[in-house]
Design brief:
With 409 residues, the chain is of the alpha+beta class. The protein has twelve helices and ten strands.
């Protein structure tokens, strides 16, 4: 009677598909894809301007990990839409490739002895961190994209710190394994290696067939995700959020994440007779009702809404008062300063958000009163909301109650 082999035995793994060629091909694809994911993720974090004010900083203990942060620009106006759309869509698209790569290297996780040399020990450590980091980053990212984030703790610090751990392991693994992978691909063969089974089962599909299967899965996920960024394809985005429930039709019929009901906005707070915008700055405090704002010069700008979950809208036509004109009312006749925006909302994150001076100065940055020729709906921020080019959606504060120029405490 033959006893079952343990997973530590190379003969336990019987698939004839495993081998250095398949693993090398998958690894090269992930090398390019994960590098793009990491760069776009860092750029997305920079777009929040976390070093501008504590109200924007979701990772206050990041220390040296924030070395790269820079002042997020306002041009091109679709910059954040592109960056986060690529980040989320590519991340979901890579899932089948990642799973195939993890499957291809499973035998190495059980190999004995744990370390044959210092180089081998470093490789095993990097592999464990790589596998754990990949599952964590892709898992938390997918949960957040689905607007059903249930992982304990805040998404922002977990995903940010996890990304650095994962990418450090990824770089170490790439340095150790890329030269061998390139040699394997150049030889166009399948040299013997510790991934190949010594007792393979009969093949039912070729290695190229397995690659086509993984690639087909990626194409399917791409096709059911990318539509979240395009109005005509939005209903095809089955695996990505559409910005909440069906937003309806008409001028206000475009995506949202946070409804007025969810944010705790009461009609009594936003009624024209009750609502006042408080503008504070060098000249003191000014209180403006909606009629006061309508008497100021109004300007229009075509700008999208783009969210960290990856969805975005096409350009919407916004009309309202320029933020830089409100800075003049607050006593800043020259270049406007930074700005702290506060909302009426009672529930949810980002009740306050800080904007940089370059964002305030942009002529397209508005305290919007209208969208697409109609007053803002309650869910889109009535009676007034901020709209800024290239900024993440959460910084385009809705239901604005107060603007404080030059003081971001």
């Amino acid at each position: 009677m033959r006893h079952p082999l343990p997973p530590t035995s190379p003969a336990f793994w019987r698939s004839p598909l495993r081998g250095t060629w398949l693993t090398s091909v998958l690894g090269v694809v992930l090398l390019a894809g994960i590098t793009v994911l990491f760069v776009t993720g860092l750029a997305s974090y920079a777009a929040y301007n976390p070093d501008l004010s504590p109200v924007n900083d979701q990772t206050p203990d990041k220390g040296v990990l924030g070395f790269y942060l820079f002042s997020w620009p306002t041009d091109p106006h679709w910059l954040y839409r592109l960056d986060q759309g690529v980040h989320v869509t590519l991340g979901i698209t890579l899932i089948p490739i990642l799973l195939a790569k993890l499957w291809s290297v499973v035998p190495r996780l059980f190999a004995l002895p744990p370390a044959r040399s210092l180089t081998h020990a470093l490789e095993r450590i990097s592999l464990l961190l790589l596998v754990g980091g990949a599952l964590f980053e892709f898992g938390t990212g997918v949960l957040n994209v689905q607007l059903d984030y249930v992982f304990p703790g805040s998404f922002y610090p977990l995903h940010f710190y996890g990304a650095w751990v994962f990418f450090a392991a990824f770089v170490a693994h790439a340095v150790l394994k890329t030269p061998a992978a390139v040699r394997t691909l150049r030889r166009r063969g399948e040299p013997d290696g510790d991934l190949a089974s010594p007792l393979p089962d009969p093949p039912t599909v070729s290695r190229r067939g397995a690659l086509r299967f993984a690639g087909g899965g990626s194409l399917l996920l791409f096709a059911t995700t990318v539509g979240q960024n395009f109005d005509g394809l939005r209903r095809t985005a089955l695996l990505a959020p559409h910005g909440g429930a069906d937003p309806g039709t008409g001028p206000n019929g475009f995506q949202i994440n946070k409804t007025a009901v969810y944010a705790g906005i009461r009609t009594a707070d936003t009624h024209e007779d009750a609502w006042r915008l408080v503008v504070t700055g060098r000249a003191g405090t000014v209180r403006l009702g909606r009629p006061d704002l309508l008497r100021l010069p109004l300007h229009s700008a075509a700008l999208p809404i783009a969210c960290v979950e990856g969805w975005s809208t096409s350009d919407q036509w916004w009309r309202g008062v320029r933020l830089r004109d409100l800075a003049v009312l607050a006593g800043y006749d020259g270049d406007p300063p930074d700005l702290l925006v506060e909302s009426l909302q009672r529930h949810g994150a980002f009740r306050k958000a800080a904007l940089r001076a370059n964002q305030v100065a942009d002529p397209r940055s508005l305290l919007a009163l209208y969208v697409n020729g109609e007053e803002l709906s309650p869910d889109h921020g009535h009676p007034a909301r901020v709209i800024v080019p290239a900024a993440p959606g959460v910084l385009n504060t809705k239901w604005v109650a107060r603007l404080t120029f030059g003081d971001l405490r």
